Amino acid sequence: KKKMILDLDTGVDDALALAYALATPDADLIGVVSSFGNTQVETAAQNTLKLLELLGKSDVPVFVGAAHSSTTDNFETMQVSMDIHGKNAIGDVALPEPKTIPATTSAVDFLIASAHQYADDLVVVPTGPLTNLAAAFKKDPQIADLIGNITLMGGALVVPGNVTPYTEANINQDPEAADYVFKHAKHLVMVGLDVTLQTLLTKQETQKWRDLGTEKGRVFADIFDYYIDAYYNLDINKAGAALHDPLAVGVAVDPNFVTLLPLNMMVDVNDGRTIGDPSRLRDPHKNNYVAVEVDEPFYLERFMNYTLAVLS
Ligand code: BDR
Ligand code: CA
């Protein structure tokens, strides 16, 4: 069985990535790393601790990661995401203070130690900026060749982006880190915005969580309904909101319901656009695979089965 580490900037869809990871029978969640992104890193870590407690999984350790990229304080982008994820990044739903605290080990050191311990059996799923992973690669370059699988939510092969017409938020917030990780990872799967935008959840589905009659079901329905309302009000989509981050978790353990294109990527560090790397385009060795299509009905059914089980 694979060992999974999530790297979350714990906002609304990151919360669902966590629920999906806990439900999947194909991997053990050995820890959650926090990143800035949808919110500040401390808030992301607190959100993760609160959600783990709600889900009865406080034994999963949480590690605090980067507060910002190496080039900016990322203040502006964090402000923008409040419109979509809420001021506390989880739909302004208030959760009790967690009884647990983050681990004393840093996110980078946890990633490095896990890479050495589990190597090919380790799956890392970043659903925020790639700052932590790039820092771990730089501190211990060996681990880039050890980690068996990195499957991330970020970027887009085909426009549009969501921060600018060409760029997606996770990559845009730390383009240098993303470029470094794309180029150095042994095996990296990019689940981009053009694909995740095909996976929508509506209030019909969140009502099913509510109908469970559990506190967890109500909380997750409230959190996601906020996101659906934000998508509606900001005119992103009138029907529902995208299941970005859980799709990366799903693909990390079972790539069979997406179509993957072997294509070595790079990031335009000026704006965070993900593009094919011209210098590695004809390299017969591919270390990057880009999702180009998803079997949406299959994913949605599995997503609902998993989340209904975890929220019961
Ligand atoms: C990504 O950005 C964040 O707002 C979401 O959590 C997701 O990871 C989508 O562009
Ligand atoms: Ca995210």
UniProtKB/TrEMBL annotation:
CDD domains: nuc_hydro_CaPnhB (cd02650). It comes from the Bacteria. The keyword Hydrolase applies. GO terms for cellular component: cytosol. Residues 4-299 form the Inosine/uridine-preferring nucleoside hydrolase domain. One of its GO terms (molecular function) is purine nucleosidase activity. One of its GO terms (biological process) is purine nucleoside catabolic process. It holds the Pfam family IU_nuc_hydro. Keywords: Glycosidase, Hydrolase. PANTHER family: INOSINE-URIDINE PREFERRING NUCLEOSIDE HYDROLASE, URIDINE NUCLEOSIDASE. This is Inosine-uridine preferring nucleoside hydrolase. The lineage of its organism: Bacteria, Bacillati, Bacillota, Bacilli, Lactobacillales.
